[in-house]
Specification:
mainly alpha
Amino acid sequence: MRREDLIAFARRDWRSVARMKERFWVDQKRHMTPAEALRLADDLRSSVTSRRDDWPSEDERRSDLETHARVSESLRRVRAR
């Protein structure tokens, strides 16, 4: 790799890249089937566990469960229309 390539990469408009990624994933999720979403989630899980075999830690599991409990309680409070 050439030095100027590395410099160009470092000077890239990262905000623009982030906006493009955001638009891409909004569109992807809009057209994704439930099966595709589950497959993507499992791919992400596999990716993390390949790098961190201790994931999720007990603290992360506890935090995740607390978040799910709060979301569930909030959803129960929403009146059906």
